[in-house]
């Protein structure tokens, strides 16, 4: 198929218009470490798309990993694409330039697979724009047998239902092994050349973790309830629940090896390495922590090798040690010490996203900044009062926070950033004001170490997410979030060294609708796209009125999806995607949260509380921590 | 020829080095910015240089201070969208290093589109690089078949060339003529050598002047800065090599550089 003239590079048509769009560097490719292969010599061709602007999507770790994993196969091509900014989309439509890849500027239809990485819900209208610009039917049912296969994966794909009509295949869980197995099927499909779409789907669903929405049907109760009764397979041999994929040994998958080095500014410019995947802190709001269990650590030696190679072959000035709670790595002090030894006195800096509130985290940050370049340090207490933190299971006392701040400011850190959420279940105004009080107390600690020390309090609106204990929760209306922000603003207005940052609460309405939506919400996504919604994660683009209009036109009540607390036994649109967590456990954890504010210990160190993940996967946490057994 | 396949890119590993086997800690280079790299801004270009230097593992010197940066200084920025075979930079290394291997290592580390084509050692007391860069020679490639002779002749013979320019949001009229050292055409290419004035004249403004004579003129498909140096009666003396960049001769069959 790659020999067709329709599949040749669009670069000659693109080049003349590039000076007429903003930030043309987004579209030219040519970055360091890209892989450019001959399409004609390959027998499967993947286009990996991050459905947001280049500068947001390029640093994405998931795309980078799968790009390398696929390209290591000699006969597989993987290229990348990003959503064109609105000015570029207009020019592309005017000039009839299709959606293209960055490596070879081939049109989307030159690829066998179009795979979208969905880190969050905000890219859904961009996803439709990419398909539409690529000349592929938006609805899977309208696609021809040899049209590209449309795949979604990533955290948001754990509830793919709002996108179900648009995608051919969704991946639940880790993608490394999954894409290679799909690639085998793609090669067979292209080699045989006579499969119909159903045959292709039938081969794909044999792969563990593969969800083909066309093989499932959602059933709803009769109005007025209209609740989902469940999503059921409509074909023999198709699983009732799709088990998630889990890569068990991260040392065997040491990616990224050769990170792409952008030619223009992006949101994260660094060589990033995951030091472990998964988290057992048990924060009840955190989808990432729930769906990525169990914990799988990368060894100190592997991380060191990856960093040494990654810095050498990218030239990046910064190394990021990523995970959901990096200080929890069992060998973190040794790892940081070794890396600090290796890079002390060089122009390479090391960073650790610091979310755990304790003095140990400051120790680590100190270790990574021996050269003394200490500016900002970030912590996430998440809620303002101890009562509220018990509800969300973020076990941080005020004394912990102040002790941590004391250590940080005493060691020369001048600016602490604190992350919080508002709109949490059971939240009162006192809890909201507690955010300001805690911020001011931290600032008072800072002042003792320097008049110019600063504290930034960052506040986001809570959106309940699938596969978490809070999946039953009602979401605050944007007006209510605005009122709560007003309380905070008034409380901190007089202090110039306390900087309050917050987002517009309105996009969280759309995020909530898409996070917990069912298949009926797909019509809203499509209508919003048709009405012009794009880049919904960008304040300058997001238009809630447009989404409301889209929902009205297709008969969807947004508040029913966002503002309503779910019934205990209510079927969820994501029930057939098995994250490993037992529903009974999630429910008991939800009840523990809202009724008693009971805390749950981290199961890395304390006895198993049967969330269900480990036995299902025949895995256990792979850490160097010795388990502590209770007497029972 | 597709505008981006400039055949003139310096072949990698073959950059010319004055005093090539000598070692130096201060080095001036002439480099290309071509192909896809012409859509990269000057700020982004600085970052690409920094990362490529790090990747090359050359012992570049770092500035002192809170956030040290490699010691690379650039001359005036090339406007976004223009290609160039005549960009210049000055590098300072931590100690003397042999030039030729350094340039080979650096060119291997650059992304496609940037390549050093010549390097010279800087001796103490040498005049500043900017003193050597008095004019730029530009090639403006119009679509094949564009007839340019009449417009070019008119511009060349004009006593004054008033064009509108926006300055602080206000339209002002400036005379381009004093900035134009030489202008000539060969087939669909205009070669113009522009003096570096306090407020630089851009090739787009020369295009505007040509368009005032011939309103039917299509916009140039590609503008390339060929070289920078000292304007002389025979053309432009390139700053690092001293080689002459001649005006185009209408009979020339060679590809523009």
Strand fraction of chain A = 5-15%
CATH topology of the largest domain in chain B: Alpha-Beta Plaits
Q: How many domain regions of chain B? A: 2
Structural class of chain B: alpha+beta
Order of helical and strand elements of chain B: EEHEEHEHEHEEEEHEEE
Assigned CATH class of one domain in chain A = Alpha Beta
C-alpha Rg of chain B, in Å?
A: 19 Å
Distance between the termini of chain A: 64 Å
Top keywords for this entry?
heterodimer; A: 632 residues; Rossmann fold; Transcription Regulator spoIIAA; six-stranded mixed beta sheet; four-stranded parallel beta sheet; 21 helices; 34% helix; B: 257 residues; alpha+beta; Alpha-Beta Plaits; 2 domains; two-stranded antiparallel sheet; 19% helix; 35% strand; elongated; disordered N terminus
Question: How would you explain this protein's 3D organization?
Answer:
The complex is a heterodimer of chains A (632) and B (257). Chain A has helices spanning 11-14, 54-57, 61-71, 86-95, 124-134, 176-192, 197-204, 287-291, 300-314, 332-343, 359-368, 386-392, 398-410, 429-447, 478-492, 507-515, 521-530, 544-554, 558-562, 583-596, 613-617, and strands at residues 44-50, 76-82, 113-117, 149-153, 169-171, 210-211, 216-220, 228-233, 242-243, 271-274, 276-277, 296-297, 318-322, 349-351, 376-382, 415-422, 454-461, 498-502, 577-578. In chain A, the strands form six sheets. In chain A, strands 2-1-3-4-5-6 form a six-stranded mixed β-sheet. Chain A has a four-stranded parallel β-sheet with strand order 15-16-17-18, with helices on one face. Chain A has a three-stranded parallel β-sheet with strand order 10-13-14, with helices on one face. Chain A is globular, with a radius of gyration of 24 Å. By secondary structure, chain A is α/β, with parallel strands linked by helices. Among the domains of chain A are: 5-239, Response regulator (Rossmann fold); 270-370 and 601-632, Transcription Regulator spoIIAA. Chain B is α+β, with helices and mostly antiparallel strands and 257 residues long. Chain B contains five helices and 13 strands. In chain B, a hairpin with a 2-residue loop joins strand 9 (180-186) and strand 10 (189-195). In chain B, helix 1 packs across helix 2 (99-109) and helix 4 (149-157) crosses helix 5 (203-213). Residues 1-14 of chain B have low confidence and may be disordered. Chains A and B meet through helix 9 of A and helix 1 of B.
